Each structure stands twice: as structure tokens, then as C-alpha cells.
Amino acid sequence: MDKSFKLLDSVAILKDVPEQKVLMGQVGTIVEILTDDTYEVEFSDQSGATIAEFAVQGIDLLLLHHTLVDTSK
Description:
Low-confidence stretches: none
Helix content: under 10%
Number of helices: 0
CATH topology: SH3 type barrels
CATH architecture: Roll
Number of strands: 5
Strand order of the largest sheet: 4-3-2-1-5
CATH class: Mainly Beta
Order of helices and strands: EEEEE
Radius of gyration: 12 Å
Structural class: mainly beta
Oligomer: single chain
Strand content: 35-45%
Mean pLDDT: 92
Largest sheet: 5 strands, antiparallel
Distance between the termini: 14 Å
Shape: globular
């Protein structure tokens, strides 16, 4: 499965990062692509205030979809 993400993708983190006050399942946004598999992700609360922003490996992220994805290809 391709684990590459694009700028501004919505993602969920797949592990707790307590030192950043982020727990598994927290939703974030890719704000910078650092390497082929490392991404700067901004995590915000419901009002849009930033909780944390830090580098995350692609293996620790799940891409979120806001519309149906065509899987017939």
C-alpha cells in the first residue's frame, strides 16, 4: 500500500505522542513534506487553535477521506 501523502492532506496519527499532547486518533494536517516518508503535521483543536506541530513518519499516519474513494481501479 502506498503511504505517500500530499500537502494539506487530512491524517490521523496511529500512536500516542504524550510529550506533544497528541493521542492516537488525533486528526492533523500535512503542512510540509520533509522527506519521502516524513511529514510535518499540525494538530489543532475544534476551534482551530494549534495543539502541536511536529515531524511524523508516514507509517504512523492514516490518510482520511472526506468523500467516497473509487477503489475499482
